[in-house]
Design goal:
Elements lengths: L14 E4 L3 E6 L4 H13 L5 E4 L8 H10 E11 L4 H9 L6 E7 L9 H7 L4 H15 L1
Helix pairs in contact: 1-5
């Protein structure tokens, strides 16, 4: 008989690219590189972020998300899709009412984008590494 796969847990394991503390940046899809770029800029300000590539977006790596609670207070999700019903919302819903973790989701608004300049669209939605770093530093200062 043909073997039927019943354990899909390996597909939900995220790749930790860089270990850090305080801030975790989860970069989905083509935004995985932006997550690393933002972390490199944050390091210049003394913030050593954890960078995570989720690889597959269909499930959640709940073991890793639970481990992040120990050393992180801010989770950023970066996705190249719409925010509404997207990956970031799954992460935000997972942490729910946890008062020790704040989740900020970055992505596109749900609207039809026709004939757009990708760089302008990214800036309009705060999807540049520089904007994400500035937002993150402001958020960390507010929480001190």
């Amino acid at each position: 008989p043909y073997p039927v796969r019943t354990d899909y847990s390996a597909l939900n394991r995220y790749q930790v690219v860089t270990e850090g503390a305080e801030v975790a940046i989860i970069g989905a899809g083509s935004f995985a590189q932006m997550a690393s770029d933002a972390a490199a800029e944050l390091a210049k300000d003394g913030v050593h972020a954890t960078v995570i590539n989720p690889i597959f977006l269909s499930g959640l790596d709940t073991e890793l998300l639970d481990r992040l609670k120990a050393k992180h207070r801010l989770i950023l999700t970066l996705e190249d899709g719409t925010l509404e019903g997207g990956f970031g919302q799954k992460i935000a819903a997972y942490y729910g009412m946890d008062e020790h973790i704040r989740v900020r989701c970055y992505g596109l608004s749900k609207e039809f984008h026709d004939r757009y300049n990708p760089e302008e669209l990214a800036r309009e939605h705060h999807l540049t590494a520089e904007q994400i770093v500035a937002d993150t530093l402001r958020t960390l200062k507010k929480k001190e």
